[in-house]
Fold this protein.
Amino acid sequence: MIVVTGATGNVGRPLTRALAEAGRQVTAVSRHAAAVPDGVRHVVADLAEPAGLRPALAGAKALFLLLSGDMHAAGAGPADIIGEAAVSGVRRVVLLSSQGVATRPFGPTRIAMRAVEDVLRESGLEWAILRPGGFASNALWWAESIRARRVVAAPFGDVGVPIIDPADIAEVAAACLLDDRHTGGVYELTGPEVITPRRQAEAIAAALGSPVRFQDLTRDEAKAAMAQSMPAELAEDTLDILGSPSPAELRVSPDVQRVLGHAPRPFADWAARNIAAFR
Ligand SMILES: NC(=O)c1ccc[n+]([C@@H]2O[C@H](COP(=O)([O-])OP(=O)(O)OC[C@H]3O[C@@H](n4cnc5c(N)ncnc54)[C@H](OP(=O)(O)O)[C@@H]3O)[C@@H](O)[C@H]2O)c1
């Protein structure tokens, strides 16, 4: 049995579906009750209380560990989840980390995530670590203003990064959970090309069949908006990357192609599959 945390989110939902379709027994974990694919068990648990994961982990052989943004600065809690997994008999953990752990190792949220990576490496379990860059699904931040006013309001409109489709992350996670060859793998996950927020807005407009206006935000305006849904320090770390990506953050990684045997999906694919959120 495989436990998927974050199972109702951008990455966890397609991962849960893929594992179930591959014929695996899956336990999906989130704090709120949710519909899951046929045959999947759903367990309500809060990762902030690692001992509460025991009912979900009982009998599990593998764990996909996704820590929500508000847990990144939470100290020992996330690392304790790995200990709970080990005592429950889990043998393999695939951790969703972040590209920033390598490219900006000194930001507070990166230091916390690096500590979780280190605990996993030293746990004696089989492990793989996924380090994605920015997600295509961050465009959902614009859903409400696109629905209401056909406006994308964002900072750094002409500064791009190679954002990744969460469906690709899920596919790589499934490969790491199911295939021994990925044990000890550290994969940097990006999309196929650098794409700016302005061009993302154009791709959404094309999928909508309706024009979308781009409104430039200052960094402070963007930080205020982001701080409503994530810790201020995570918003700062994210804005640092969005505003001035380093050469390493601009690089298109070969790892999706290497693991999956196909190129990562372009942003236009994500926009077309998720267009209902913007109508
Ligand atoms: N967005 C980016 O650009 C980016 C870049 C690099 C890395 N990441 C990492 O990717 C992760 C986010 O992935 P995502 O977009 O798939 O997430 P998401 O769509 O925001 O979904 C979060 C999932 O986790 C569950 N969850 C949240 N807090 C929880 C808790 N305390 N205990 C148990 N379950 C909890 C949510 O369900 P409930 O709310 O019902 O609990 C939901 O299933 C984060 O770790 C983030 O750091 C993101």
